[in-house]
Amino acid sequence: MILTKLAKQPRICHLARCYTVPSSTSQPEPSKNAPASAVTKSKEKPKRKKRKYNIKKVLDEFRTLSENAFEPVQLTQAEVMPAEARRNEVNIEMLPKSLYQKIFGCDEGQPLSANKIKQAREHLEKHELLEKVDPPLPEINFPLPPLQGQNIEDHFLKISEEQCGAYRTLMKKLTSATVPDIPSTWSTSVGWTKYMTGRPPEAVPFPDEDCLVFDIEECMGAGLGPTLAVAFAPDAWYCWVSAPLAQVLQGGGIPPSKDDFSPLDLINLETAPDCEIIPPEGSKPKVIVAHNASFDRARVKEQYWLEPSQTRFVDTMSMHICVSGVSSFQKSQLLHKSVANNEEDSILQINVPHGEEWRERSSLNNLNDVHKLYCGGKGLDKSTRDIFVTGTLLDVAMKFQESVSYCASDVRATLEVAQKLWPLFLERFPHPATFAGMLEMSAAYLPVSEAWTKYIAASNNKFEEIEVQIKNTLCAAARQACSLLREEKYKNDPWLWDLDWSVQELKLKKSATKGADTEWDEEDRNDPSAGKFKYLAAQRAFMPARVPLLPGYPAWYRDLCTRSDSTDWVPGPTEISPSMQVTPKLLRLSWEGFPLHKVKGQGWGFLIPGRPPSHLDETDDVAPPVDEIFKICKKYAAVIPDIQLSTNEIADEVERKISKADYFAAKKKKEKGITPPEWYKGTGLPCPDVALPGVWFQRMPHPGGAQLKVGNPLSKDFITRISEGTLRGEGEPGQVLDLSNTGSYWKNNRERIETQKVVWLNNNALPKGIRKNYKLGAILPQIVVAGTLTRRAVERTWLTASNAESQRIGSELRAMVHAPPGYHLVGADVDSQELWLAALLGDASYAGVHGATAFGWRTLQGKKSLGTDLHSATAKAAGASRQHAKIMNYARIYGAGQNFAQQLLKRFCPDMSEEQCRKAAVNTLTLTKGKRMYTIPAKAFKALFEKNLVTAEHKSNDKVFCTSLGVKFGTINEAGEILLTKSELDMLRGFEKLSVVKWPQSACAKVRSVWQGGTESAMFNRLEEIANSPYPATPFLGARLSRALEPKSIGTYNFLTTRVNWVVQSSAVDFLHLMLVSMRWLLGDVPNLRFVLSFHDEVRYLVPSSKRYDAALALHATNLLVRAFCARRVGIHDLPHSVAFFSGVEVDKAMRKDATSECITPSNPEGMTKTYKIPQGETLDVYDAVQKAGSDPFKKLKQKFSIYDFCGVHQEFNGDLNK
């Protein structure tokens, strides 16, 4: 048996490390001669040997077994690849034999350390995971095409180069060009004009060069699309003038603005102005370089056609962010031009070397600042830009030459930036998959139908209905509140007691005014009942010259009304709105059950009754009704909020907090006055300076941080708190909160959605089968393909769109992207993408096998039903729900620490005290990350031993060293490293200083901080190792960290959590780029294949309906290949079966999260099938996809190639690997 042959070896051959497990769930029976390190835990632990003081032996004792020699065992194919399920050393089921051979062949990798395998198994046994073995997954006959190269890494290198090589060549050609002088005079002719040195201007159909630098200017107020454009090619300048502008230049009138655009209204870059389809010879590769290229692309005709163009847009802004981007807090510092030094608002003070040198290596993202960063100079003259922002077409026409020259100067600046940036980009992002993936993302395409306008109309109608309902409810609440004026009942109201209840009296004249009109109006005079009320008309003579507004009504109510003599007068409190300060009081809002109150200078907060009297109490006549507030608070019951956050939202929130926490140090402001009651366990922020009699005032927590005050509790920042139940109202007025929640999505996003640039294709541009009965439009989302420090794509509407929610108007936005007849949308969500990548790094560094750590094992094999999955384990440790634990887990791998975990727990569990939240956060982090320790290499102790300053400790069971002063310290971890606590490290440093140990000889000079004892310690140690390297780079594609955050710019230990966050999220971007490259390779022969969009962890494609199942299978294959690539990059030449394929691929006619969802919302109450005629789609696992795909879906990829077969013989052959 294989394990028998391994018994004599100190290390394990990589290919031999998987062994057979029977189909039942019982544990496999190992050979009697198998070593305990590879099969089962040793029954008896070896006794600790006493150490003798011998420097050589002491150093040898900490040397790991990894240096032992290894001689590979010759094994037969049958021994290594048994017929049944393959499992690795920690019982994780691996790829089936057939797939393993196709992907890895005999690509063995480095042999494993038996010592590390033993360490991993003991670690899993400690957490009771090793013995939990799942039944084998079903075998699958997957038709994987042959790899292009000798291994999976060669494969991706080759196919990436094939996809982006032509575009990289064009970029080199363009950035090598010499910029000729800008023409002094520009033609006013409509369309394109070409300018070459020594030649007269020439009208041309379009620029026929294959590489251009491009800039568009649009008169925003005209509503007529692009106004003019300038392009530069290596040997010519080009200028494009729109037909409306040419009409004005020739003396004609200004055309009216347009609501609907067709491709013919836009700029043509590949075909004649009147052409509406790709010519028969097809599109050729073409590069367009622009700054914020998505803006320019959205105004190019050919980009909207259903048949994809081969033109790709390269964004210099995205390249700049990749090379020199900053964190969100660094960006705020650049915006303010100086570092905030207000000690009251600071959170972490750090030592930034040499006066913040990162500022010299980065800038804001606008073209002016980017140009100054890379090219120097005083900056660009942007004064002419105002003509396009605030002016009209006539203004542009009057300054035509100046306007075009301004556009040309931006083109020249963009080229100069590209010439500096392009070499830096290639140096810092060497793998072609990065550039290929960015090119693919720049071609995003969203097809829409007439359902788009129907959706907007339905959302607006429902929103207006909600607004009227809110207005009526608020008016009724205001009128009802006026009744409290009688007998001064308002003084006992927990909300309205501090409003201005003063009234104005109506003072009549003692004698009637002579000549006053005492008759009814003509309309009323003919009324039969006019005579009965004639005496009222007579009272006009006694009215004062200026009648006060609403005499007898309180002042706060009068502020909500208009005067009767105004032209648009309507009776009642018509000026009231949710943004007014009186509204939360009229709605009787409470936070955690306590009535809201606003204090000048503190913003909104709430009142807690029971505060004892104090000499600090305010002595105003108006005092809070403490007894009534007590009655309100008796209704208080802690609500466990149901918080739903996407991974995007978690990542953004963590990044905002840690980037600031990395910059400033925590400094707590000393509180004075009487502290809040111990029984209060909510989230309020104490304000001891506010001394209201009988009550404590606590500020509402602002989502942006404790330093911010809440200006309006009904703003979008608190919408989630309404749905959670933390913020709620009393009685019928409280229904306004539910209504506000219903309209919140549309209110916050309506402008962006309505202003989406939809271009409707003419019939001639549509496939013949749908020209008569289908209206096809397209939206090109304004994506910045690398918009953040972590290179995540950024877009304000589509990438932030939530899934359809039953109580949110317009939240079905994503489902309004519809595939036209003859096409389908195919896509998938990457299951736990970032968790798996982080676990992979930890497992690889810990033992070199999948699932070696508890974190990795739970990610791969944990079961929610058994409570062994990652989120269930965290929920148990934190005392929170599994959903809340999921948020905490993602926040932790993004870099959040104890403070952030404590804030989340307080938000999730309002009934927990601060101390309980602190303990739960500490327990959770101790279980997961472990404890922060400091490791010193054994060799670093040499000087201390030689000077007899340190000896080996023989008597202590815990500590392994002893100073000459008798102080015991240090422990040994599994890898034989010396570990010190922070106090022990400080002690040793002081001891070295006292003993005059020089720095080169100092053990403390070689100290390295590590996490120890947690389920995720190995993973965080690896992340920090990458983040602290001189030039941090992702382990998968070698993508470098921004220059502004490299250690030489900010110091080795500064911004560590931000860099850890970058490692995780930037690795996920690598994963996405690899997916895009793989899909393009697998489906490159599919006509009209279009990349639609990629969200944080999902991707969507538009494919012909006849190829939809092939595309679904290709997505499964892509997941398999990309994960195999990532595993091999970190030294693991195998892949777990559980993560090899997507759990499901969506095949649908709409871009919804779930292919079977009806997306029912207030604006879509009848669902997708009835309202929009969109049938339910399909969700296909890999077995379904194999069954439904064609007999040979990747036939064109099966060309001549070379691999190493299983026995290591190099072969070349054609056809299927199975043959």
From TrEMBL:
EC number: 2.7.7.7
Gene3D superfamilies found in the cross-reference section: 3.30.420.390, 5' to 3' exonuclease, C-terminal subdomain (1.10.150.20)
InterPro entries for the chain: DNA-dir_DNA_pol_A_CS, DNA-dir_DNA_pol_A_mt, DNA-dir_DNA_pol_A_palm_dom, DNA/RNA_pol_sf, DNApol_Exo, RNaseH-like_sf
Region annotation (Disordered) ranges: 22-51
Top-level taxon of origin: Eukaryota
GO annotations of cellular component type: gamma DNA polymerase complex
PANTHER family cross-referenced by the UniProt entry: DNA POLYMERASE SUBUNIT GAMMA-1 (PTHR10267)
MF GO annotations: 3'-5' exonuclease activity; DNA binding; DNA-directed DNA polymerase activity
Top EC class for this record: transferase
Biological process, per Gene Ontology: mitochondrial DNA replication
Listed SUPFAM superfamilies: DNA/RNA polymerases, Ribonuclease H-like
Ranges of residues in domain DNA-directed DNA polymerase family A palm: 810-1107
Organism of derivation: Cloeon dipterum
Keyword Phosphoprotein: no
Protein name, per record: DNA-directed DNA polymerase
Keywords, sorted A to Z: DNA-directed DNA polymerase, Nucleotidyltransferase, Transferase
